[in-house]
Structures
1.
Amino acid sequence: MVVIQSDFRSAVQMAGKFGYFRQNQLIASRCLSRAAWLRPSSRALPSWPTYLRWRVSVRAFSTPGTEAQVKIVTDKPSLCTADELHYVSVSNSDWKLALWRYNPPPQAPSRNHPLLLLSGVGTNAIGYDLSPDSSFARHMSGQGFDTWVLEVRGAGLSMQESDPRKIEQSANAMSEKIEATANTATNEAFSSEQQSTITPRSNSSAESNISAAKEEKGIATAWDESKLVTKLTETFMLLSERLSGFLSEGQSKIMSAKLLDQISKLLEDSQLFDRFTEIRGKLTNLLEAGENYAIAGQIRDLSERLVNIIDDGQRSVSPPLFDLQERVLATIEDFQKQIELIVKYDWDFDHYLEEDVPAVMEYIMAQTRPRDGKLLAVGHSMGGILLYAMLARCGYEGADSRLAAVVTLASSLDYTSSNSALKLLLPLADPAQALNVPAVPLGVLLAAAYPLSTRPPYVLSWLNNLISAEGMMHPELLKKLIMNNFCTIPAKLLLQLTTAFKEGGLCDRSGTLLYKDHIAKSDIPILALAGDKDLICPPEAVYETVKLIPEHLVTYKVFGEPKGPHYAHYDLVGGRLAVEQVYPCIAQFLSSHDQLLSS
């Protein structure tokens, strides 16, 4: 081995002002059964390891092709600064993965292998192409590498679209939405700050409006009881069926109890509470029974009885429970939104590893046809973790990874020995908590926090240090990175990633395969880079994985000097000195292995 030394809560509250349920950069995913995820592909792929054969079936929609399965995108979205935008379809789903392509210029040296770039968790391709002067993707294409940047499901311009004819329209709509969301977040953050200096107006007008509305509506206004019965029945049936495989039995119990607790709070201190408690007990027993074909009628009967209780509270309880039916309906609708989020954001790290990355690798090699059937890969943060996991799993199975050489930037399979700021994610290690927060709108949160980190009194300035060391990134590029590069992250993904902070390091979703136990079985050359002031993946975390790799296969380098300049998490990709220091280091490493395999 060669060693070369070289307040978040405020943001959450602000983000809440403009809507937790706003979808930042993700088209809602369609409910897929667990059986569909695990159904093996009928296509024979003998050269791929077992776990990569599950769903590697590719249909592409790309800008330059003319084949029958190709969609020509003549109007490339403004957000995409690459030469071409391709879409790779993953079988057994409607996901179309965005793939940004950077073509080498005619004067660049000829290369044997294409280059795949993988981004970090909750990020898109923009981080690799911030500007013409700060573009790792453009730099590598200039070195002769046919460079491709993958946006995994849920990131950037990747989308769920079953109709190929709508790809171009959807891509442009998503591009506009991403840019608009960033602008809206900034404007609303400034607006909320200004409102704190404005004297609140009297509540009398608002109260009079409410009073007038009540008089107009009347306490005894008729309401659609059947609608509430139907919503209750549908919700309870959905929970009894455990969301078609999305929830375990234990998780379904947690969600059922949560909904009933919310309804219970609306009836506290009323004469109806005992009646509700009786029905709650019967509902709970039915939901736990799980005999869906036998309990549907009983659930509807109990839902009707529950609605009757609500109606009694509205009409006969003294004092009346004003607007109780509306509040219960709102509670159920909010609960249904949470269930929808669980379904929409239902993927984890292994979905990327077993489905997204293999599909894209196959597509790139079909387009570029490398002589040895291999490609080069660079992964930043989670992108590097994906490459480590792929090498470990192929080593475990004795399979060919189809990688010629790998570069990881600020990545590790084991963070237990470090003081990584990502330990803030550990509360999500509780599956119940993951159900309460099905997805984390990282893009919205960072966009809301950005004004507070860059303007007096700089209450959240420490957030910038997680991304870039002081003075290492141009302010406009840092703003672009924060406002446009991040998206919503499923709790299931975070839940699996938190295993990297437990004994044994990152493991697969079953918890039986510890990736670090098999990384030493890989025979692929690796360049592992770290930043000296990286608070997310500190050098000691990077080294925790590096030390497991055979010495003749790994080169480890830490960028940054004791007296500066320093490198934080994103400086390895977009820092002002990366073009001079980091990019050439990576290009030299990949060039040497590209030449070795082509000689």
2.
Amino acid sequence: MSLRASIAVCETSCIDDWCRTMCQENGVDKSNCMCQEQHESHDNRDDESQSLLTTNQFVSSYTDEQSKGKRRRSTQSKTELASLDLWRLQNLAIPLSYLAVGTLQGLFRTFLNVYPLNLGASEAQQTTCSTLATLPAAFKIIYGFSSDLLPLFGYRRKSHLFLGWVLASVVMGSLWLTSNLTLQRLDNGTSAASTTMSHSVVIVPDDAPSLVQLSWTFFFFGVGMWYADATADAVVAEKARLEPEAIRGSLQATCYVLRFFGLMISASISTYLYSTVGPQVIVRALTWIPCLILPFVWCLAEAREEEQQNQDSDRRGRGLSDSFTATPFIKKHSLRDQWDEIWRTVCSRSVWEPMAFIYVFNLLQVSNAAWRQFLVTVLGFTEANLNTLLVVSYVLVYFGTIMYKYCLLQTSWRLIYQGCLVLNLVFSAMQLLLIRGHTLGLSPFVFALGDDAFAEFLNGVQFLPTVIMMVSLCPPGSEGASYAMFTTVMNSALMISPAISSLLLGIWDVSKDALEKGDLDGLFNLSLLTTVIQISPLLFLGWLPRDRKELEALASKPFSGSPIGGGIFLSVLFCSMAWTFVVAILNIVRPNWAGGS
């Protein structure tokens, strides 16, 4: 009963008592006493009060339920926010995994660019080693399916993450423990104070690893690293569903910022470590970095599968959503069930239309394959200059991701791609000016630095909207396979693009002999052609939704659910994967098969 109703009942009772007393004192007959009417009115008020009491009890009960619901939602909200805090011990394995992947990439790229040559490998054999190290990335969709379908020791994610890093560490540790990785450098007399490898004779010990051992070691190391990477992607895709709308995408942005930070730092110091300490320090780092992540993987918050099922039933009984925990329980699918779910996903227009743009965009990022030869032959760039360009590119990719995370997170995806394509046209024009010798008073190195490095900055800006959109497309329970499938679409297009670049070399004469003779017309024409190809995705920009709401709206438009759209999507995916595998094999069997400058 409310306070006002209680006061009204109290007042009525007091008036009745006073009325009866006054009638008795003045000898008024009971039948003529106004108290009777008052009493009857009071009885009616009692009925009303009783009704009011019943209503208030219902309202009070409803209010209590509302209060309990609010407390449950508050608890749920706090738990969800805690699961999104990457710096809690229970989640720390995820950002560390992204940081490790970037760091390891920077380390082994430098190692494989130099060490096989020190062992006496030809450039073709060196290409084989590098190809085998990157080939496992083409199998990420298999890693994704395994973490979705095959729980190990009751866990769907952390056990696969643990296994990937253990495999990477054990494989690289075997190279470290079974081989002599030291190198002895002797001055060959070409420079009195030579400290660089270009002026030194390298003596390799007799028990150094063979090229076969080195190649397969890095292949299986890549399997472990990309296996762990695909599993970490699946965990992030699950957690990204819990993000509030205002900060949607920041979780992925943080993870990829860490990856590019690791790449930037390791690329900057790996060359120095290799030349001053030796290759053994790189191999030791590649062994120990995965080991350092394992304790944090052990602490990763994930309930066992049967525990998740019990928690899920209990949450539904208490009116909580399935997203109450960091890793919501998803009913285990068979391979057929998951394939059917992925088929329904790719048939949706909200999937095949934006992914078609992503594929076409990356496919058309065709570079000038003769550009490096021009920098060396005509402008006289040294290996140090080229390495500096590479390191600065990594630095600017990192700052590109930082800019997106803190300045452009809520900006339209279509506007970001449009702006990056227009700026790419500006930097490509700088490339044409450099060919003609118009450097605006700057040295050719500084001018080339602005051209190549800032193009990578744009790549960093436009990379994050792509992966954020891909997470939005993942169906619940199939995050590992679906996200790996979407990234494979993007990566396969990036693998085919260099082959197109090589095929364009035959249109004009851009050979080393022509460049040495000063004939740069072919190079100019090729640069102009590749510039036009690179900005041509502007014609397909309508396929890309502006934001997540427009992405979801595509599912209700005509041709959504069309098996034709899904069939074309999967056909392009599998053909591109086959092409990527064929290119990798050709790079191993017949390096430079596509021609050269």
3.
Amino acid sequence: MQNLPSFPDLYEASIAELRNGLEQGHFTSVELVKAYIARISEVNNEGPSLHAVLETNPQALMQAAALDKERKERGSRGPLHGIPLLLKDNIATLHEEGMNTTAGSYALVGSVVPRDATVAAKLRDAGAICIGKATCSEWANYRGKVASGFCGRGGQGTNPYYPNANPSGSSSGSGIAMAIGLAAGSLGSETDGSIISPSSHCNIVGMKPTVGLTSRAGVIPISHTQDCVGPMCRTVADVAVILQAIAGPDPLDEITLSQPKEIPNYSKALDPNALKGVRLGCPRLFQGKNTDVISAYNIAIETLGELGAEIVDPADFDNAAELVTSQDETVVLQTEFKVDIKKYLDGLVEIPTGVKCLADLIQFNIDHADKELVEPHWTSQTRFIESEKTSMGEGYFTALAANEVLGRTKGIDATLKKFNLDALVVPVGQFAFKPAAIAGYPIISVPLGFHPDGIQPSGAEPTHDLAPGMPFGLCFIGTAYTEYQLISYAYAYEQRTQTRLKRLAYAAAIPKTQLKDVMTN
């Protein structure tokens, strides 16, 4: 009797496993797409209603069939050929494909983008299939003080590790979806914490690259100074593959033209021995106050030492107090959002709702409060209102210059130099990712641990910020264009600890559909 091929478990399947199965002919891209879409249907709006995906691609099966045919006739384009991915809903995809690009808002439903976002086009060229748009905190969490994971179009997203828990954001849907295998990989975007925080909360790997490594053209903006697109996946290896595909210069995004002329092969950074002789610093002032997280951090530091790293503990920023209290970032983001969103709207081919600027968006929300400013938890648009009051005057330019000094010159770069460090390592938290955000420097998060089962969940307003079994992450931070090194450190730690595999999502949040359930023969 012939042995049937074993299929990878889609809850955890890596891109490499899926690629191998496709190349061996064990299954097709069509079958992969069918399986992932079925998994989305099980838990997105049904069952636990995680609200991870806003819409699926009506052409995904047709595209998968074409890529299966191409593989058979001409061979594979590379590691992403026929691999299904999700993109955050602020990343433009061709209008004629049948999906919206809205940042979660009804204000942009039906809007016609001029082209794919550059990162989406690069993924297509690599053979990837965008099977849908992941939900996000609306306007990348820049509308107002609203719970992470909420958008008008998608409702309140929740964490698959505890019912009605906070998934964090703004790339909330990408985090939820990756945690439970709703696609092989995903893209998120970050201005300050929006890749790293949901990756931490959802027990996955996320990387925000150096601002300038990946194009933002076609991505609904907050800030041209801080915005960045990066991968969110289940493993460091998958992050490396997707980053490789989306990195590179783009004439449509001027800042990318100053990146290094040669981009390294990030998959070659996957060395389990990469930490030998590496000097890592522990900025304890940014470790937070949660004793369970600090305990896990201390164990991680020991592990990193066992892997050959030289640990400098503590390695605190001289300007840590100023980083915590400075409001210069707020000034920069408020000022740039008003200008950058106008530029994005001006570039659209058509906007059925007629919004042309930030003031129009504010009024749209008032006029459609039943869909956007939803009682009782999601009524705020304070960030919109404050941004509308701004202008690019002296205060903005002063804050912009101060941020560069705060994040780079006297922040990350000064700390790395003072302690002769290769990178910093610290639990994910607000004051861990802020320096990298304002500096525009790279940061990667890997799973670190889980809150204990015995704790009481915090009050749900509207989601639990803390609950039993909720994950938290560890991040590695470096100076500009050190993605290769950070990937190598994260990989070595991941391979030793395998923390992600130590706890599954809660039972109802785990889709049951597997490849065998959709196989045609």
